[in-house]
Structure formats: C-alpha cells, structure tokens
C-alpha cells in the first residue's frame, strides 16, 4: 500500500505537459505473478519548451527493469527511476524520439484492484483515475491522448480470450503453448481509458446496425455458465445505441463493442474505449436471481458506460478537476434514457430521492465540495454523488434555462467543436452561451459553489387587484473552505393552481425573468408579481425538481392536498404528499423520544390513501407515494441532535396508523396487483410488483403477523417478490420461526450464487435494532463472506453502516468501533473501498451528543493509525475538521 504522501493538487496549477505523446505501443507477456510490460512511447518536445526540461513520467509501486532511447540503452546518468516516477534528461529539441520502458508487475498480488489485477483467474485492468501508472511509467493524465497498439502474449490454454481496446488486428499461436492477440485503437485516448482482459471467458454475441448502416459486433464476456444471464444487458445495450443516435445524433465509431463482467470491481463499471468492464452485478440477470431494481440498474449502467463513448471518450477531461464534465453529463444522459424507456415522473421521483438521501447530506456535511472542486489530495475520493448526481442536475438546469431546442443545439456544438479534445467546464458552458446568446456566468456558480441552496418562500394574494405576489429569498450555506456565497441563478418551474384544479395563466408578471413555466431567481431577494389572477391560487414550486435546492415554504395541509390532487406534474404531486408527511413524521419522532403517544393528521392519511387507491395513476407512482420519507430523510428534516431510535419508533407508529386506516385498500391492492402472466422486468410490471409489495408491507403492520409475508415468500416465482417478502419478514418479525426458516431456505437455494447471497447479507445487515451488530459480526465469519471482494464487503459492512440507522448508531458506540476496526482491516488491501465505506459516517455531527461523542472517538482511532492510505486519511481528516 502507498501510505499518505500528503500532496495536494490544485486546479490553478494546471499546465500542459512539456512533451507531446504521439503513439503508444504496449506488449504484455502475461504471467499471474510476473507479467512483463514493454511500453514503446513516441514523444516530441512541445514547441517552445526549454531544452533543459526533462521528461517526467508517473509510476505507482513500479520497478524499472529496462530503458531504451531509440532502441539503445540509456546511461544511468541520464535518468532517475523511483517507484513513483521516471525522469529522463537530455532529450532532443524537436525531433520525435522513442522511449521503451520495461516493467514487471504482479497481478495476483494486486488487491487494490487498480492497474492490472486478477479476478477469479481472469486478468483485468482498471485505469481510471490513476491506475495506468501501476502498469508502466507514463504521462498518466487525461490530457495526454494517443492511439494505442496492444500486443498480448499469454498461455494459450489459460487465455483463450485476450482483449484490448479498439479493433482486433489478428492473433495466432506465438510459440509452444503460447498465443498472441493484437489490437489497435485509432481514436486517440488518455491512459485512463486503456483496458486489457484475458482469460477463459464465455462470450455471447449480437450485432447492431448503426444509423449510417455500419454493422457493429457486440460481445458480452462472462464466466462460463453465466451466458444465459446476459440477455437483458445485451438488449439494454442495443436500446442505448439506438437512443443515442436518435436523441443526440451520436453514432458508435468502432467495428466492435465489448463488455466484460468481472466479480471483483471497486465501482459499478468502467467505460474503457470499446471494452467496457463491468461489476458482474450490473450485467447478470434472470428472473430467478435479479430484482426489478437490479434490472433497472443494469439498464441504466449499460447505457451510462455506452454514452461515455461520446461524453468522456471522444471528448474527455483536461484534468481530473473537470470530472463532472464527463460524469455529470453522462448521468444526465442515462437519466434521460431511463426516463424515455420507463416512466419519466417515476424516474424523476427516484432520482430526487437519491439526490436527497446521498447528495444533500454530502453537500451539508464535512465532505462538501463544489461540483468542480479546486483542490484534491486523492482523486479517488472525488467520484462522489456531488460530481455525479449534482453534476447531472446542473446540466439538467442548463436544459431548463435554455429550453430543449437551444440545449440540443449547444450539445451539437459541443460535439462538433471539441471532438478529439480534452476540455474544461468553461469550454462546455461556452457552447451553450454561443448558441443561446445567454450569459451563463452567474449560472456557472453551480460548478464552483458547494452547498445546497435554501429558498425561502412567502406569498400574498390580493383579491381586489387580482394580484399574486411571490417573494423568494435564497441562501447558500457555508461549506468547508467557502464561508461566503454569492446568489445563484436558480431556475424554478412553477404553476399557480386554481380552485377548480386548472392552472392559471401566469404570463403577466413583473419582478424578474420568467420563461415558459420557469422563474429565474437571480437575486438574493426577489418578488415576482402576477396580475390577472382571479382567485387565490395554490403555488406549486420547483416542479419536476427543476433546481437541486431546499424549499422552505409553509403551505397548509389543504393546499398541499390540492397540489397532490391537481398538479399536472406527477413529480409535484408526490412532492406535495411528501411535504404533507414530513411534519407528521418529525413530530412523531419527537413524541416517541419524549415517550408521548404518536399521532398522525387524518388529512395525511386521507391524501395518501386517495393517491394509493387511484387506479387512474400508474402503480409505480402509487408505490412511491406509499414509500414515505425514510428514517434518514426524517433525520435530515430534524436537522440535528438526532436520536435514530426515536425516529424509527415514531415512523413505525405512523406507518401503523396508515396501515390500520387503509387495511381494506391494501388488501384490495395486494390482490389486484397479482401478475397475470410470467415474470417480465418491464417498467409496468415492475410498478405493479412495487405497489403489491407496498401493500404487503402495510398489511404486515395492520395484521401484525408474519403469516401473509411468509405465504408471499412461499408463493414468489421471481427474485423481486422473494427478496421483498424475506426482507419484510426479517425486518418486521425477526424472532418469528417463519423468518428463521425463510432465511435458511434462501441460503440453501442460492448458495452457489454470490450476487444473490449478497442480498441475503444485506437484508440481515439492515435489520433494525441493536442486535444487528451481533448478526453482522457472525456473518463476517460466514463461509460465503469474502473480505477481499468489494461486492461482499459493501453488501454486509457497507449496508450496515450506510443503511441501518438504528443498528449502526447504537448508543454505546459499538457500531462505530466495529466500523473503525473494519476500515483499518480493509485499508491495507483496498484503500478505495475503505475510504468509500468510511463516508457512511459523514453526518456524525447531526447525532445527539452521546452518539456524536462515540462517533468522534471511533473516527479518532482511525486517524491515529500510523499507516493509513491517502484515501482514508483524506476522508477521516476532512470528517474531523
Ligand atoms: N468512470 C466510471 C463511470 O462512472 C466510474 C469509475 C471510476 C470506475 C473509477 C472505476 C474507477 O462510469
Ligand atoms: Zn461515468
């Protein structure tokens, strides 16, 4: 492990390399513990660069075993090699020259899963962000682009498959027992997009004909036996390729597109040029082993990685500070794709839930940073929900501000102007300014100012003048390193809903810019005055969540119910019901904490049951309505001094009141939502299952018996319903014999399938209450647990820390101490994974003092450890600051 070097990188320090890389030619002689890498690199000195400037290449845990200049040995006096760098002096003034570097690396010993590593006997690489420098010395930064030629030599029997980026050049026997394969990628790319995969893999093949009628070969590589579980991923890939042509005019640009599924992977997937590498969790699916959520994730991630071919690969980032340029934009694109393939409002609700549960806490805590940070200590720690999800929201706001036509024109210009380049956020924004004529300088604060803006709202209606006044005030909270903030340009979609449910004509307005149904809030305080409004309207604001802000606006339950009934924007109807629920849930938490009886406003119950029972609404939407804000959501609303136990007790009591009041409806829904045909993962069928599961959950509260869930478990013919029933049993009836029996039978049935056993780990890790810790500790010793596999660790330890508020936040602090121990164990093997899981404690300051003290102590135990990785040290120090 590379322990902390403490170096901080600043955006302001950016400058181009002294030497221009023209071509890369790599030869790998594969060996599990001693792979030889020859890198032939052609460079020339950049015009105007001083003759004394040396060539500086990056390394990470490397040893140099050979160095040639134009095929001749380089004298020792001319270079310095350390594990972290190779510096070569006295290089030509202008003429191109060739450097050949030989290194030997040990894939088997590579437990961080960065660079070249082994997973279940397969050779695999991960180079983003700085993994390539673990393979050979290289200018390992995203603004160094070159075409690559790759030759792979390996044992023939062990490696029938040998893949790299680009198009296949050829392959054959090499010498006795060995084979070679050669690949050429004509599209200049940075090193982070390099990939190599070799081993004994099965392949499933298909084709896609592009808009200019070129036939592209599609291949998905998986471990033998998994071929039949690739159909959905292949289908999603073809739909993605088609959609990108139709919606963004983007065509695929190589003869072949490959996806490889591996079982050890730090992230979801990786967009290497023409050779995407996936966490197998996001490729493999069949009805027996994958849930509706798994299918939706696979569709979204296949699309995401494919879309990177244009937003990320053809146009890449100048430096890692620009990460949102490819990630935020590509998330925006995959969201749009899913919205088009499924239900747009339901997708939007899920996105906003995710944003609020992950990004808002990040933005409001010690790890807050701008969408485009200006400094980092460890780039791995900036693959955050802020860069991805808030980054996507920023692009969404550009679309809202400009309107779809100008947004489309701006994207077209971006693709045309910057194809083949490594660019910045400024370059991107400029394209939208150029096509629209709009100045986006103030809007660009979304890239540089961290923190979730708060918009205070007040309204006033005057009957005699038929005037409606809307006063808005924005406040951007202080975040680490940014005490003072400027007012932002916030696009707020709105509607004025009249008594009869119709939307008022609100075009006669003063006080600020309004385009279509979008208010432009640009000042700190601004009052919009609407005239010609004949009766008091109900304001629906931030419809479709047009801006990622918090809104403080006290609306009466009657007004919220009015929005929930009449808004034409389904997202806003859901939001209104959420706004109705929140005060009930926060009050319930307070009452539970003080030992008072928990109550619930009948108006909330009535509105929820009305929406849930409305057969004109799609079932997936009704399921979202019934899901209610989570315990974490309630904690965030409470804002501090939180007692997770009381939040849990209060919320459960409210659920019970809703369940009792709606028992008949839930019985009807439970039987109405039965599937009338075999399982299909389509959105409509998934929506029915989601509503059925919500009904089953409420019935468990109403009936207070495991009976119905146990029957559902027995009757389920697909993983969605099976795992839902099992989760309900375990979370509601942990002591019941039905639960013990179901947990055991699930394990026996899916023992051979690690991805399914992960579900079994997760649902136990998230069982509410103090006992969860003992269970998690016991499961760590389970033979199916594997501390070296990121999916296993995330399923058990990660889910416990991130998704079990009562089980993890024990008053005695044992949960935190356990996590600290785990972090210190994982860190030496896989720092990226350790740092990621540690972020689960980022909101520790919002806990009540007893728990907060325990949390701080546990964090300080980690901080005191002498040999932390840069990744963990960076996170723990920022959390304690
Ligand atoms: N670039 C990948 C994606 O979002 C994520 C990733 C980052 C994967 C770093 C591995 C390592 O598509
Ligand atoms: Zn991405």
TrEMBL record:
Pfam families: DUF3458, DUF3458_C, Peptidase_M1, Peptidase_M1_N. Keywords: Aminopeptidase, Hydrolase, Metal-binding, Metalloprotease, Protease, Zinc. GO terms for biological process: proteolysis. Residues 52-193 form the Aminopeptidase N-like N-terminal domain. Residues 232-443 form the Peptidase M1 membrane alanine aminopeptidase domain. Its cofactor is Zn(2+). It catalyses: Release of an N-terminal amino acid, Xaa-|-Yaa- from a peptide, amide or arylamide. Xaa is preferably Ala, but may be most amino acids including Pro (slow action). When a terminal hydrophobic residue is followed by a prolyl residue, the two may be released as an intact Xaa-Pro dipeptide. Its EC number is 3.4.11.2. Belongs to the peptidase M1 family. This is Aminopeptidase N. The lineage of its organism: Bacteria, Pseudomonadati, Pseudomonadota, Alphaproteobacteria, Hyphomicrobiales.
């Amino acid at each position: 492990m590379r322990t902390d070097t403490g170096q901080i990188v600043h955006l302001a320090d950016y400058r181009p390399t002294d030497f221009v890389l023209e071509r890369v030619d790599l030869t790998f002689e594969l060996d599990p513990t001693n792979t030889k890498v020859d890198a032939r690199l052609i460079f020339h000195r950049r015009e105007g660069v001083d003759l004394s400037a040396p060539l500086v290449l990056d390394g990470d845990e490397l040893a140099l075993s050979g160095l040639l200049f134009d095929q001749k040995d380089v004298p020792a006096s001319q270079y310095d090699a350390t594990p972290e760098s190779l510096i070569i002096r006295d290089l030509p003034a202008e003429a191109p020259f060739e450097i050949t570097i030989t290194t030997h690396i040990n894939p088997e010993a590579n437990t961080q899963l960065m660079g070249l590593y082994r997973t279940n006997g397969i050779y695999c690489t991960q180079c983003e962000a700085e993994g390539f420098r673990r393979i050979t010395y290289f200018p390992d930064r995203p603004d160094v682009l070159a075409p690559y030629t790759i030759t792979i030599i390996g044992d023939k029997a062990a490696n029938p498959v040998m893949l790299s980026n680009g198009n296949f050049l050829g392959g054959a026997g090499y010498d006795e027992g060995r084979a070679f394969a050669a690949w050429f990628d004509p599209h200049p790319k940075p090193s982070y997009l390099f990939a190599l995969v070799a081993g004994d893999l099965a392949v499933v093949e298909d084709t896609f004909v592009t808009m200019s009628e070129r036939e592209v070969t599609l291949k998905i590589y998986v471990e033998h036996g998994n071929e039949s579980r690739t159909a959905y991923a292949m289908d999603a890939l073809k739909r993605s390729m088609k959609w990108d042509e139709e919606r963004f005019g983007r065509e695929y640009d190589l003869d072949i597109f490959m996806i490889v599924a591996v079982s050890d992977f730090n992230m979801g997937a990786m967009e290497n040029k023409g050779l995407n590498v996936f966490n197998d969790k996001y490729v493999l699916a069949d009805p027996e082993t994958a849930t509706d959520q798994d299918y939706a994730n696979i569709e979204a991630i296949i699309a995401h990685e494919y879309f990177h071919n244009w937003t990320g690969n053809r146009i890449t980032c100048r430096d890692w500070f620009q990460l949102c340029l490819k990630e935020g934009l590509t998330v925006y694109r995959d969201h749009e794709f899913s919205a088009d393939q499924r239900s747009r409002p339901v997708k939007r609700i899920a996105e906003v839930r995710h944003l609020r549960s992950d990004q808002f806490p990040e933005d409001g805590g010690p790890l807050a940073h701008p969408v485009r940070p200006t400094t980092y200590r460890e780039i791995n720690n900036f693959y955050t929900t802020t860069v991805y999800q808030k980054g996507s929201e920023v692009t969404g706001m550009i679309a809202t501000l400009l309107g779809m036509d100008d947004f489309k024109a701006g994207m077209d210009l971006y693709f045309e102007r910057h194809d083949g380049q490594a660019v910045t956020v400024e370059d991107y924004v400029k394209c939208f300014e150029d096509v629209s004529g709009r100045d986006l300088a103030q809007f660009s604060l979304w890239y540089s100012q961290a923190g979730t803006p708060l918009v205070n709202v007040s309204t006033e209606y005057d009957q005699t003048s038929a005037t409606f006044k809307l006063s808005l005030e924005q406040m951007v909270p202080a975040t680490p390193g940014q005490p003072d903030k400027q007012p932002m340009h916030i696009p707020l979609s709105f509607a004025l809903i009249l008594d009869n449910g119709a939307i008022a004509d609100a075009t006669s307005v003063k006080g600020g810019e309004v385009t279509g149904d979008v208010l432009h809030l640009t000042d700190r305080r601004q009052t919009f005055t609407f005239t010609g409004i004949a009766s008091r309207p109900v304001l629906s604001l931030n419809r479709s969540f047009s801006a990622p802000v918090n809104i403080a606006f006290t609306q009466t339950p009657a007004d919220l119910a009015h929005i929930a009934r009449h808004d034409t924007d389904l997202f806003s109807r859901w939001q209104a019901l959420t706004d109705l629920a929140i005060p009930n849930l926060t009050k319930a938490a307070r009452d539970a904490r003080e030992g008072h009886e928990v109550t619930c406003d009948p108006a909330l119950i009535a509105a929820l049951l009305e929406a849930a029972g409305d057969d004109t609404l799609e079932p997936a939407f009704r399921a979202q309505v019934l899901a209610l804000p989570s315990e974490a959501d309630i904690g965030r609303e409470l804002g501090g001094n939180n007692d997770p136990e009381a939040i849990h007790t209060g919320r459960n009591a409210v659920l019970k009141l809703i369940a009792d009041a709606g028992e008949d409806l839930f019985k009807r829904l439970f039987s109405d939502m039965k599937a009338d045909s075999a399982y299909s993962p389509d959105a409509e069928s998934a929506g029915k299952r989601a509503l059925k599961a919500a009904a089953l959950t409420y019935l468990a509260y109403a009936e207070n018996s495991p009976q119905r869930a146990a029957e559902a478990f027995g009757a389920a013919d697909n993983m969605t319903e099976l795992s839902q029933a099992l989760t309900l049993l375990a979370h509601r009836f942990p002591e019941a014999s039905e639960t013990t029996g179901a947990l055991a039978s699930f394990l026996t049935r899916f023992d051979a399938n690690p991805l399914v056993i992960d579900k079994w780990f997760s649902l136990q890790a998230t069982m509410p209450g103090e006992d969860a810790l003992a269970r998690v500790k016991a499961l760590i010793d389970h033979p199916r647990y594997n501390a070296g596999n990121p999916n296993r660790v995330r399923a058990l330890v990660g889910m416990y820390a991130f998704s079990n508020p009562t089980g993890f936040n024990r008053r005695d602090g044992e949960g935190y101490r356990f996590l600290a121990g785990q972090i210190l164990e994982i860190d030496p093997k896989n720092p990226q994974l350790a740092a990621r899981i540690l972020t689960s404690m980022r909101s520790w300051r919002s806990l009540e003092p007893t728990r907060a003290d325990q949390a701080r102590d546990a964090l300080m135990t980690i901080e005191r450890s002498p040999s932390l990785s840069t990744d963990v040290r960076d996170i723990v120090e920022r959390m304690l600051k």
